[in-house]
Amino acid sequence: MQDVFSGSFTQQEPIPDEAIAAAVAVMRHGRLHRYNTVAGETAEAALLEEEFAATVGAKYCLAVASGGYALGCALRAVGVKAGDRVLTNAFTLAPVPGAIASLGAVPVFVEVTEALTIDLEDLAAKVTTGGPRVLLLSHMRGHLCDMDRLMEICNGAGVVVVEDCAHTMGAAWRGVPSGRHGAVGCYSTQTYKHMNSGEGGLLVSDDAEVMARAVILSGSYMLYGRHKAAPPPEMFERVKYETPNISGRMDNLRAAILRPQLRRLAHQCAAWNARYACVEDGLRATPGLNVIARPEAETYVGSSIQFLLPDWAAADVQAVIARCLARGVELKWFGAEEPVAFTSRYDSWRYVEAPRLPRTDRVLAALLDMRLPLTFSLADCALIARIIRAEVSAVWQARVA
Predict the structure, then answer these.
(1) Distances in Å between the alpha carbon of 107 and those of 154, 157, 200, 252, 333?
(2) Contacting residues for 82 by C-beta, under 8 A, at least 6 apart
(3) Which residues pair with 249 in a beta bridge?
(4) Which end of the chain has the smaller Cβ count within 10 Å, N or C?
(5) Phi, psi of 163 (to 5 degrees)
(6) Neighbours of 153 (CB within 10 A)
(7) Which helix (H) or strand (E) holds 339?
(8) How far apart are alpha carbons 144 and 137 in whole angstroms?
C-alpha cells in the first residue's frame, strides 16, 4: 500500500504565546493606531521599526500595511513616475509588476536562469536600453543572485536597486542581509512569509531622503517625530510639502504580534533549513529531476523548495502534479497557460506588453514549487520527498519506455 501524506501545506505554526499576550495588551488599552500614544509611550510600530533596523543593520525602517504596499511606496520614494521603465525579474509574483503598474510605470522583464535568479547577462544588456532608472529586484522564492555582480552592473549604469525580500527575510549574500545591497529593501509579514501578522510589510534604507519620503507617503501626516528609526527632522522639512500621503501604515496590533517573532527569527530560519535539506536530500539523483544548486555565498531560508523537470512535456508535468496530489503532496507549477492561485507567468499580466523570453519560458515550463511550513516534522519532509521521488520516477519511466 502506498504511503499518503495527510498534513496541510497552508497550516502555519500558532502565534507565539508572548506575541498573543502583547496583542491582548494592545487590545486592552485600545490604542491600535500607531500615532495614538499617551505621554511617555512609544508605539509598538515604532519599536518594531527600531528593532528590525537593528536586526538587518539599516539606519532607517518603516512598518507598513503589506509587502505590496512596501514595494509601491519604495518605488515612489526613489522617484519612479508614470511612464518610467522599471526593470524586474520575469519570474516573480503578481504584486511585483503590480507595484510598478500602480504608478503608471512600465515593467520591463529580465530573463531568469535555471538557478531561478535574474539573468545578469540579460540585465547588463537591458540597463543600457530604453533608459531604465530603477530595478525592482525580486528574490523570488528565496533565491539570491550574485549580488556583488548585480550591484556592479546597476551602479555602473546609474540604475537604483529596490529589493523585494518577501521570501528572503533572514537570508544573506556573503554575510550581507538581503535587502541591504540596494537603496531600499522591502519585506512582507503576510501569513506565508517568515514572520506572520496576516498582512504587513517593512522597508529599510540608509538613504535619509528616500526614507523621509516613504514615511510621509505611508501616512504620517506631520507626526513623523514619533518614529524611532527615521531620518532627522530637517530631512522631513525638505520633503513634507511635496510628498503625497498615500496611507498604508502598520497598526500597533500587528506590530505587537511581530516583535516577539522577530526575536525568534534566526531559530525559525534554522528550522526551515533543516526541512529544506531533508526534502532536497530525498530528491537528489531522481531521474529527470534537477534540484536547484545553492551558491556557497548564499545564506538562504528554505521556507519553500523548488525543482525542475527540464524539457518535460506539459502533460507529463501535470501527471506528476496529479499523482503527487493523490498522495497528499501539493505542488505548484509556474508553467501553466493560465494563472492558478499565486502561480503565474510574466505573460499572465496582460497590462504589460512583454516580448517572449525563451530562457525564462523554458525554466517556468519545468518549475515545480512546494511550501515547507514549520508544522511539518522532519519525518513528514522525508515522506514527502519519497512520494515526489516515486511519482516523478514513475512518469519518467513511462516517458522513456
Answers:
(1) 17, 18, 24, 34, 23
(2) 103, 104, 105
(3) 64
(4) N
(5) -100, 125
(6) 20
(7) none
(8) 10
Can you list the pairs that 123-128 forms with residues at least 24 positions away whose Cβ atoms lie under 8 Å?
123/87, 123/150, 123/153, 123/154, 124/153, 126/87, 127/87, 127/153, 127/154, 127/156, 127/157, 127/159, 128/157
**Distance set, CA 372 to CA 193, 203, 318, 330 (Å):** 11, 25, 21, 11
Residue 57 near residue 185 (C-beta atoms within 8 A): no
Considering the segment(s) 265-400 as one domain, its CATH architecture is Alpha-Beta Complex (3.90)
Most distant CA atoms of the chain, gap in Å: 76
Segments making up each domain of the chain, as ranges: 17-261, 265-400
Q: Are 375 and 13 in contact (CB under 8 A)?
A: yes
Grid cell at residue 21: 499576550
Rg of the chain, C-alpha, whole Å: 22
Residue 401 has pLDDT above 90, yes or no: no
Cα–Cα distance measured from residue 276 to residue 378, given in angstroms and rounded to the nearest whole number: 9
What would the pLDDT profile of 128-162 be if each residue is shown by its tens digit?
Answer: 999 999 999 999 999 999 999 999 999 999 999 99
Which helix (H) or strand (E) segment holds residue 307: the answer is strand 304-308
CATH code of the domain made up of 17-261: 3.40.640.10
CA atoms within a 13 Å half-sphere pointing along the CA-CB vector of 23: 16
Q: What is the pTM of this model?
A: 0.97
Domains 17-261 and 265-400 share a fold: no
DSSP codes joined into one string, 48-99: HHHHHHHHHT-SEEEEES-HHHHHHHHHHHTT--TT-EEEEESSS-THHHHH
Question: Which range (119-128, 301-310, 349-358) has the least confidence?
Answer: 349-358
